[in-house]
Amino acid sequence: MPNGVLPVSQAFVYLTTQNQPASRSGSCSQCLNPLTLASYATTAPDGSFELWAAPGTYRFFVEKGIFRRSAEVTVVSCSDDVALDPEATRLPRNNVEGVIPEIAVITGEFDRMEVVLARLGLGEVDASGRLVRSEFDVFAGRNPDNVSYSEGAQLIRDRARLLGYDYLFIDCGASVYSGSPEIVTNLQTFVEQGGRLYVTDLAFGYVEDAWPTAIGFVGSGSRGLGPEPEPYDLALAGDAGQVVVGTIHDDSLAAWLRVIGALEPDGSVQLTSWGPGWAVMQGVSPEQGRTWVSGDVSWTDWSNVTSVSGHQPLTVSFDRGCGRALFTSYHTIEVPEGEPTPPDLHPQELILGYLSVEIGACIDEPIVW
Fold this sequence. Notes:
The protein is of the alpha+beta class. The chain contains 9 helices and 22 strands.
């Protein structure tokens, strides 16, 4: 990761004699074409890798999605090992060290993904957990908010400006959404043209109204994957105060969490800080969607005001066009603003860290529904 502490799993590392990054392939022009490379590999969950090459001088590249860093390396003999400077294998923190995505974050009331991104190496927070510097742009999505931030509503209503970003993170409780056709169309275009959208909890309307057949929320029949957006008042039903034992459905994510010591002995992960009325999912499109994390949770069925429990999706993603959207029901940070920031990232922050680079993984051919 950019912070130089967490390893990067499934990064693409390679050597080339052209002094240029590998060319891209596919209609989306995102995936690397390895045919012209001298050597290439992907990193293990602990970030380790091996490359084999004949004697010579090469350009070494490490890439994960849009993140890219390079360094010169010389192989003197086929029998010699060349140990790279660890700094050369770390993802860049800024565009001076390499290439990083153009990222926008819209703030909310109940989540602070901007703080997590900073702690992953893309900025700086003070002792009380407040963001003081970032390599990404922050927009106000709550009222009141830091007066130095531009309004998030201005960003998502300005299609040309929005399309200038690679990633858009929208915190739970962002209040800039009005369900307008203009916003829906802009978000659809952003993702279909290759953007990555990451949304949490109460901000689920940003994905539900734009792609109602992608994720189903409770309160509607048959998994909620119909063409009409689902009612907000029925979906916001999750019970507060739960400690949820999360099941990881991706082997690479599970292996990475295990390497950094974030998994329980049984391979699960503990998810905390559930506020009242969080958005409960009941399904994701089986064609282009996937579930990353699920767990046993409880909620209220508002149609008859009864308590319900079940094993539900908690973090899902789906592809559309050349882009990808991700939604998570839980918050990614559990420390209230103004309280001291703990030294270690907790599981939800770590999952965000992994997925914030993983959702940038290439899409070779566009996904059209």
